[in-house]
């Protein structure tokens, strides 16, 4: 098996990781938002608690999304460095 086939598998694997990682972030953000909406609906207008629930939900969504994007950026950078190094090492 040549390196071309291995690289094709690596590219497909990376695409799958990106898709499923993004799907996990979207599903978790929707779950957080749904829980927050349900919580606010159950509070019957208690403003101070509603603000706390919405703040916590926003923080959770922001943290999850930022973590995914940060990890993805570092992963992409590391991968491009390795690919560049491998290309430079070939005769």
Largest sheet: none
Strand percent estimate: under 5%
Low-pLDDT regions: none
Spatial separation of the terminal alpha carbons: 20 Å
Number of helices: 2
Coarse shape: elongated
Helix and strand sequence: HH
Summarize the amount of helix as a percent range: over 70%
Q: Which structural category do the helix and sheet elements fall into?
A: mainly alpha
Rg calculated over all Cα atoms? 21 Å
Query: How many extended strands?
Result: 0
pLDDT average, as an integer? 86
Describe the structure.
The chain is an all-alpha fold and 91 residues long. Helix content is 91%, strand content 0%. The chain is built from 2 helices and no strands. The chain has helices at 3-42, 47-89. The chain is elongated and about 70 Å long. The mean pLDDT is 86.
